[in-house]
Design a protein that fits this description.
Layout lengths: L9 E6 L2 E6 L10 H14 L7 E6 L10 H8 L3 H19 L4 E6 L2 E3 L1 H7 L3 E5 L3 E3 L13 H8 L1 H8 L4 E2 L1 H7 L4 E3 L2 H15 L4 H15 L4 H16 L1 H11 L9
Parallel strand pairs: 2-3, 3-4, 4-6, 5-7, 6-9
Antiparallel strand pairs: 1-2, 7-8
Helix pairs in contact: 1-3, 2-3, 3-10, 5-6
Length: 265
């Protein structure tokens, strides 16, 4: 049996071959801090070779999945220069790659805010279940930033045409719209229905042989083509340039000050 890492930003519960991973920073709507990224990557690595772990269920505490990247981390990186922004951004891309290729079936339970990085995590899930009033979006351009690590996975999930519309307008939409886009597979009306749907999905997953599932997932991903590490490296550099540029500085400052940035007034 795998030895799970000690985590401060995650709650881990393993039973019946299912590892429940709860993003646990409810005070920030589970914003994705660098520590949370590291702990998620460590958790995925810990179970990667363990076929006794059949499924991973990723959810968020406090009624939200994930509100995106942690602006405080970006503020801390500001004093360390552009390379710190690039490395911070690229670490999240590495998480998305590793989650995408996890040999277990990855199921995301999506409630409340599913923004930015949370949106990206939904896009690398094998099965996504959303509450109808969940709020999805790619808000980066409204902050003067770019969805650097997320965009290739969103394009792969819902196609280029819809990704262009969503990324270039920072539009928000609910679970029903997410279902129509092909981002999620099931939409439920309340938390109880969400839990019941998860139980049903897990029953089906546990009927499948774990090694056969792992190899089938590998085959399907290879068949569809993958976002490349080279593109994600380049995107991290673009992110660093965006966040240290005039728009990125104004956009993140406006977010912290709870006002509209100059281009939106």
């Amino acid at each position: 049996m795998s030895r799970l890492p000690e985590c401060q930003t995650l709650l881990l519960e393993l039973h019946g071959g299912v590892l429940h991973i709860t993003l646990n920073r409810p005070e920030s709507r589970n914003a994705m801090s660098l520590q949370m990224v590291a702990e998620l990557r460590a958790t995925l690595a810990a179970v990667a070779d363990d076929r006794a772990v059949r499924a991973l269920v990723l959810s968020g505490a406090g009624g939200h999945f994930c509100a995106g990247g942690d602006i405080k981390d970006m503020a801390n990186a500001r004093g360390q220069g552009a390379d710190a922004y690039r490395d911070l951004n690229r670490a999240f891309g590495a998480l998305l790659e590793e989650a995408q290729h996890a040999p277990q079936v990855l199921i995301c339970l999506l409630q409340g805010a599913v923004m930015g990085g949370g949106f990206g995590l939904a896009c690398v899930s094998d099965i996504a279940i959303a509450e109808h009033k969940a709020q999805f979006g790619l808000p980066e351009t409204s902050l003067g930033l770019i969805p650097a690590q997320i965009a290739p996975f969103v394009v792969q999930r819902i196609g280029l045409t819809e990704t262009r519309r969503l990324a270039l307008t920072a539009a928000r939409f609910d679970g029903h719209q997410a279902r129509r886009l092909g981002l999620v597979h099931f939409v439920e009306e309340d938390p109880q229905a969400l839990a019941e749907r998860l139980d049903e999905v897990l029953q089906h997953v546990l009927c499948c042989a774990p090694e056969a599932n792992a190899l089938t997932k590998q085959l399907l991903l290879a068949s569809a083509g993958q976002p490349s590490s080279e593109l994600l490296d380049e995107a991290a550099q673009w992110f660093s340039e965006a966040v240290t540029g005039a728009e990125g500085i104004e956009g993140t400052l406006a977010f912290v000050q709870k006002r509209k940035p100059v281009w939106a007034t």
